[in-house]
Amino acid sequence: MGDSLHTVTTLPTARQPGCPFDPPKELIQAREHGPISRFPFPDGHQGWLITGYDLVRSVLADPRFSSRRELMRHHPLVDYGDIEVPPAPPGEFLLMDEPQHGRYRRPLVGRFTVRRMRQLTERVERITADHLDAMEKAGPPADLVTAFARPIPSIVICELLGVPYEDRGRFQDQIDKFLGGEAGDEELIAAYTATQRYLAELVAAKRANPTDDVLSDLTDSDLTDEELRGMALILLSAGFDTTANMLALGAFALLSHPAQPAAWRADPALTDRAVEELLRYLSVAKTFMRTALEDVELGGRTIEAGTTVILSYNTANRDPERFADPHVLDLRRENGGHLAFGHGIHQCLGQQLARVEMRVAFPALLDRFPTLRLAVPAEEVGLRPETADIFGVKSLPVTWDA
Ligand code: HEM
Questions:
Q1: Ligand 1 closest atom vs CA 105
Q2: How far, in Å, CA of 34 to CA of 288, rounded?
Q3: 293 contacts: CB under 8 Å, gap ≥ 6
Q4: CA-to-CA distance for 71 and 328, rounded, in angstroms?
Q5: Is the CB of residue 146 less than 8 Å from the CB of residue 384?
Q6: How far apart are CA 58 and CA 60, in angstroms?
Q7: What is the tens place of the pLDDT at every residue in 270-279?
Q8: Ligand 1 surroundings by CB, under 6 angstroms
Q9: Range with the largest mean pLDDT of 113-117, 154-158, 309-313
Q10: Sign of dihedral through CA atoms 275, 280, 283, 287?
Q11: Atom of ligand 1 nearest to the CA of 112
Q12: DSSP 42-70
């Protein structure tokens, strides 16, 4: 690590050809210079980029760094000039600080405990088996994204929240637009408006006719319709796209490292560790931002009040000072403490649910299709752009010996 201050001038928009699972080389190089780099935002704001594990973790645990949307006026890739950004709408607690954040998160915590999520395991097993049956029946080849990675988390989050699965077309494609990194501004506004319209109908339906699900339970509180819409939006988007991309990119990573699934098939007791390693190695939720509320000393630098910092979770999870041979996928690794679910007050609310889904779905897929392999050369698998909030593959053609 050098003492000189490294500057990253633009965020990379693509990964290195042939390295779909590794963070872009510019970010890896930035971390090699040191855990914190200067980052001049396109609108001229002098911000910071944090790539080292310890510093990312300490920012996430520090209440002097805010998640409030209205403070994050600077876009890492686009110069929007001197714009006013409104606060997050009521209920969208990912982009709030305490005490507002806790007011929305608290009523949800009990619904996402380890115990509650374990109770869901059987249902996740059934949903997974149904999709593998359908894949097997249709015969090879298949697109693992549409046959496996998207429907499983989609059905699970719909059932948990009480969203009729037939309605998924009304919000899933829109959510893809928010998080997929390829939609233009007008498309994003249209997607947001359509989703809000759907959520308004949904909340009204739950109030009129409560059923046994999270959203209906929440209607029995002092939360307003607008707040419920915001909370439902966060849960639906965070609960679906992240897990869907972990399942698809995870399958791609496994099929690209055949010794790893072979080890997993041979030793089912590897499952918990294997899932944590895939989370660390892939870090599909790659970067988040925070804004300093006051001057903060960090890594020998002063982050001045009002300054925006970009936190790179994926380079933090590849930090050699924390993980030996960090760029190696090793399902046997004992690597507690990765940051794939974040850390601190915003640490992923749905992490136990995501774990149940992955612990069920990956082994079931590997068991059902012992000869599963890519149906196209790895270079032809279509990746989301690096600008996507959640990284992943667009489709994953696979085949097997029927
Ligand atoms: C493998 C899948 C998943 C990954 C990698 C993931 C990752 C993350 C990360 C990194 C954060 C923290 C964001 C920050 O630091 O600002 C987060 C927050 C969150 N996640 Fe997940 N997530 C996953 C699955 C889920 C699921 C299944 C749900 C279901 C409800 C969910 C709900 C949430 C919510 C509500 C938050 C906001 C928490 C808060 O602000 O207090 N996530 N997730």
A1: 41
A2: 19
A3: 63, 64, 65, 66, 305
A4: 37
A5: no
A6: 5
A7: 999 999 999 9
A8: 67, 93-94, 105, 234-235, 238-239, 242-243, 246, 284-285, 288, 340-342, 346, 348-350, 353-354
A9: 309-313
A10: positive
A11: 30
A12: TTS-EEEEE-SHHHHHHHHT-TTEE--GG
Point out the ligand 1 atom lying closest to the alpha carbon of residue 353. Answer: 27
Q: Separation of 266 CA from ligand 1 center, angstroms?
A: 31
CATH numbers and ranges of domains, the chain: 25-399 (1.10.630.10)
Cβ atoms 36, 50 nearer than 8 A: yes
Q: What angle do CA 112, 113, 117 make, to 5 degrees?
A: 75
The number of beta carbons lying within 10 Å of the beta carbon of residue 28 is 19
pLDDT single digits (tens) 22-35: 999 999 999 999 99
Q: What token pair was written down for 85?
A: 């950004």
Residue nearest to atom 20 of ligand 1 (CA): 348
Q: Which of 346, 348, 349, 353 to mutate to test the pocket of ligand 1 (most atoms within 8 A of CB)?
A: 348
Residue 1 has pLDDT above 60, yes or no: no
Residue among 181, 178, 174, 192 nearest 382 (CA): 181
Distance 325 CA to ligand 1 centre (A): 27
How much of the chain exceeds pLDDT 70, in percent? Answer: 99
Provide the edge-to-edge strand list for the sheet that holds 308-312: 36-40, 46-50, 308-312, 287-292, 65-66
Nearest CA to ligand 1 atom 9: 341
Distance CA 203, CA 228 (A): 7
Distance 329 CA to ligand 1 centre (A): 23
Taking residues 14-27, report their average pLDDT: 94
Read off the pLDDT of each residue in 252-256 and give the average, rounded to a whole number: 98
Q: Is the peptide bond between 99 and the residue preceding it cis, with omega within 30 degrees of 0? A: yes
What is the residue with the minimal CA distance to atom 27 of ligand 1?
A: 239
